[in-house]
Specification:
This protein is an alpha+beta fold and about 170 residues long. The protein has one domain. About 40% of the residues lie in helices and about 25% in strands. It has a 6-stranded antiparallel β-sheet, covered by helices on one side. The longest helix is centred in the middle third of the chain and has 22 residues. The protein is globular, with a radius of gyration of 16 Å. This is STAS domain-containing protein.
Length: about 170
Amino acid sequence: MQITKTKDEKKPNMDCVNLLTSVLIYYPEISKISIEPDEKIYINYIIQKILTDEEIEKTRTLLEECLKSYHYLEKTQVECDEVKINIEEKATFITIKRDMKTFSHGELRLINTLINEEFGELLIMDTDKIPMIDSTMLAQMDLIDTMFASLKINPVVEKMIGIREAGRVIVFNK
């Protein structure tokens, strides 16, 4: 993985780079994840089907209601919680926007489970590149919690984006 320096020679936040890489490796359903300096996180999924208006509304309602319930149970005061669903060409794009201050690995697992249960085989993902679950992966999954906590203390100063491309995970700053 190559990381380029920004114009003012600041080093990228390595916890952010590691977090984006780990999330994309362990959650193959996520097509793109980004974290912005305004402390917002964006999680993107691609569904290889054009959803009807009814399906879009059902999906949006499901995600919004489940996230509201999660936040209520966790006693979380959320600053930003947005679900966008867009149709482009022959696919549907779901984007979840959250604030980094209150976002957690538990919430990410919930979102991922909901999307998986709702769309399953329709999700575009690198199925050939899904790693086998082993003790090393389980230990790395625990580190995702630590990286989320670190970013709450040491936020990013530039937009960081993680994507999948040709079976690889690429993280870059913008």
